[in-house]
Amino acid sequence: MKFLPILRSHIQSHSCAGSSIASKAHFHQKVWCDSVTLTQSCSLELVSAACFADPRCRVVEENDLVHLQCPEYPADAFSGRGIVVVAGGQYLEPALVMIKMIREYGCRLRIQVWHLGESEMLPEHRRLLQPYDVELRNFENFVDADSLKPIEANVGMRLFQLKPLALLHTDLEEILLLDSDNCPIRDPTYLFFEDGFQEVGTVFWPDFWKTSVENPIWQIVGQDPRNGGWEQESGQLMVKKATAWKAINLCVHFNSDFYMKLLNGDKDTFRFAWLASGTEFLMIDTWPTTVGTLKELHSATDKGFCGHTMLQHDFDGTPLFVHHNQLKMTALSIGENFKYQKRPSVDAKTFKATPAEGLILSNGEVLSCIDVMGTFESSSQEAVLDSTKTDLLDFEINYFAARLAFPKWLTSSGAKSAKSSRALQGIVLSSK
């Protein structure tokens, strides 16, 4: 058991489950939790969660102190390595495509698909997954109904907690967590054997953005925002549970209405949980490449770059993950989706991603876009970086070929799938 000493005068409730231990009390003295010190103005709610946010925790009073007593890491509960995907409902189709491609690369890792309820995993869905040796996990068999309610955030009511819950409850020890709309270019198994992962235990990938230095979350977790660096993009992350058990529990705790007032969805809760608990992580050095198309190729009036996909890299800076997070249901003609890219120029002094006007397609749908801007040594003015072609044509052909292997009823875009089918057949024939 681990003990967290807290002055009795700071406790407003002796209930360890949920958030009642915290109320809105704050403290400023140092608090020790399994050799980790949380300082500055941390909420008691945060500290209780950092010492394993587990309903089995209990409060023990001793010599004018209150100790929070929590279970040790359950080492015998987890083993092996594999991929975890949260998918079901509208997210099942891209997950099926991704899993099919991963298996065709020769990947033999265990793959778990976590879904919410039987309505998200019907018998016909199970039959489609059967050839790919997939393990199914229903959240309802692991957590209660209250833990599966949508969370209010600045983007509306969402189930942000599902990925952290999957990370917490999977029986895997070493995990590659992938979004359903994030497809590797090749077998990612080798990542588990990289020194960076084996030595550190957690690998994060950078996002396009940085958290404001004015955000109160920095004070809550006791971190200097000037050292914050890039935000973490959770379309992919790697975790060794033995080294990050405390952080995983705290991450689940962060996915609540209160913290969603400060954070931008579940992705921010990972990095701040790791920072708050003092858990080490390795951030991939290479900034994500923005991949998309040129508006003038699809519009008579619009011009400019439309980035809809994040191309993430491995430890050596080689492209690995195609996270098409804006290209979920809408698709362009085959060969046009991942054709262009923007990367920070070597001449750029600073660079940033910025939202751009969406691309209005011929069918009336709007494709969300971002652009990448930079400033250069010779000027403090923002400059447009050049768009270049990618090397993703083969990946794109294979991706849409895999997509066409599944029935159209999986997606609401049956008409677009039919159009893609005709275009794909022409490209495949011409490439033979």
Topology diagram in text:
Elements: E1 2-7, E2 26-27, E3 31-33, E4 36-38, E5 42-43, H1 44-50, E6 58-62, E7 65-70, E8 81-86, H2 92-104, E9 110-115, H3 123-129, E10 134-138, E11 151-153, E12 156-158, H4 162-169, E13 174-178, E14 182-184, H5 195-200, E15 202-206, H6 217-221, E16 232-240, H7 241-254, H8 257-260, H9 266-276, E17 282-283, E18 289-294, E19 305-313, E20 319-323, E21 340-342, E22 348-360, E23 366-376, E24 379-384, E25 388-389, H10 393-403, H11 414-431
Parallel strand pairs: 8-9, 8-13, 9-10, 15-17
Antiparallel strand pairs: 1-7, 2-5, 3-4, 6-7, 11-12, 13-16, 14-20, 15-16, 18-19, 18-21, 19-20, 21-25, 22-23, 23-24
Helix pairs in contact: 2-10, 4-7, 7-9
Distance between the first and last residues' Cα: 63 Å
Number of strands: 25
Identify low-pLDDT runs: 1-61, 63-69, 413-432
Largest sheet: 7 strands, mixed
Helix content: 10-25%
Structural class based on helices, strands and sheet pairing: alpha+beta
Radius of gyration: 23 Å
Could you tell me the mean pLDDT?
A: 78
Strand order of the largest sheet: 10-9-8-13-16-15-17
Number of helical runs? Answer: 11
What fraction of residues sit in β-strands? 25-35%
Q: Estimate the global geometry from the Cα principal axes.
A: globular
Overall description:
This protein has 432 residues and is α+β, with helices and mostly antiparallel strands. Helix content is 24%, strand content 30%. The protein has 11 helices and 25 strands. It has helices at residues 44-50, 92-104, 123-129, 162-169, 195-200, 217-221, 241-254, 257-260, 266-276, 393-403, 414-431; strands at 2-7, 26-27, 31-33, 36-38, 42-43, 58-62, 65-70, 81-86, 110-115, 134-138, 151-153, 156-158, 174-178, 182-184, 202-206, 232-240, 282-283, 289-294, 305-313, 319-323, 340-342, 348-360, 366-376, 379-384, 388-389. It has a 7-stranded mixed beta sheet with strand order 10-9-8-13-16-15-17. It has a 6-stranded antiparallel beta sheet with strand order 14-20-19-18-21-25. The protein has a 3-stranded antiparallel beta sheet with strand order 1-7-6, with no helix packed on it. β6 and β7 (65-70) form a beta hairpin. α7 (241-254) packs across α9. The termini are far apart.
